[in-house]
Amino acid sequence: MEEIKIERAKEKDWPYIQEKLKKYILDSADVNWKQFFVAKNSGKTVAFGRIKDHKEYFEIASLGVDYYHRGKGIGVKMLLFLTEEAKRQNPEKPIYSISHKPAFLKRGGFEEVVNAPKVLEHKKNRICKLDPANSRIMKLKSS
Question: What does pTM read for this prediction?
Answer without folding.
Answer: 0.89
